[in-house]
Backbone:
């Protein structure tokens, strides 16, 4: 999942080492990915791949990257919303109800999620495989995710708010689902217009201005 671009950083120096991000239209983004076997998890190849995905996510910059986005149909994703991103969002007067909290770097191997409760939240989101656009996507406020880490250990955790959105977005990629499948099509905006007009508006004003009925 993408984030708003900020000032240039020394990460640009690392850009040459990052992987090319597959763009929407590539068939791999529309196929279900296969699980990694216990033998594959934790191999030097997978560890190197995770490091490259981490670097690629940082350079992009993004808060999540799924293996199909680098052309690999395996159930592997990395997520991270570091303190400096969350702090920056605070200073931009975060949109009410986003519940953006720090999400430490996490490797999700063979992940799945189940929704918890009926609460949904609608916010703009973007995708590194479709840069230049954002749209309102309604997602579950809380999900329970299960996954394995690089040691093969099983995890089971409840995510809420913005981290739950990141988890849903990335695991969706492993099922061949992209946010445009879940967006309100009338809310699709170019990033430039998003930054100029929509970024800091409360959601009820966004919906009114776009001619969308309230949830
Ligand atoms: Zn994405």
Residues:
């Amino acid at each position: 999942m993408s984030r708003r671009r900020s000032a240039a950083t020394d990460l640009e120096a690392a850009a040459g080492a990052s992987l090319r991000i597959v763009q929407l239209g590539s068939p791999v983004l529309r196929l279900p990915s296969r699980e990694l076997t216990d033998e594959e998890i934790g191999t030097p190849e997978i560890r190197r791949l995770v490091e490259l995905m981490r670097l690629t996510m940082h350079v992009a910059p993004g808060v999540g990257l799924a293996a199909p986005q680098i052309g690999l149909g395996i159930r592997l994703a990395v997520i991270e919303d570091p303190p400096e991103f969350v702090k920056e969002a605070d200073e931009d007067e975060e949109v009410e109800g986003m519940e953006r909290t720090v999400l430490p770097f996490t490797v999700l191997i063979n992940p799945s999620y189940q929704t918890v409760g009926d609460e949904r939240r609608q916010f703009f989101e973007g995708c590194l495989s479709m840069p230049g656009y954002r749209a309102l996507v309604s997602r579950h406020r809380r999900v329970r995710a299960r996954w394995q880490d690089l040691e093969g250990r099983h995890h089971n955790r409840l995510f809420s708010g913005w981290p739950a959105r990141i988890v849903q977005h990335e695991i969706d990629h492993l099922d061949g689902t992209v946010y445009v499948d879940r967006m309100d099509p009338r809310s699709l905006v170019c990033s430039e217009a998003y930054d100029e007009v929509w970024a800091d508006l409360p959601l009820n004003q966004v919906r009114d201005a776009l001619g969308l009925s309230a949830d």
The chain has a mean pLDDT of 92. Helices lie at 44-59, 83-91, 162-174, 191-198, 203-210. Residues 118 and 140 are 7 Å apart (CA to CA).
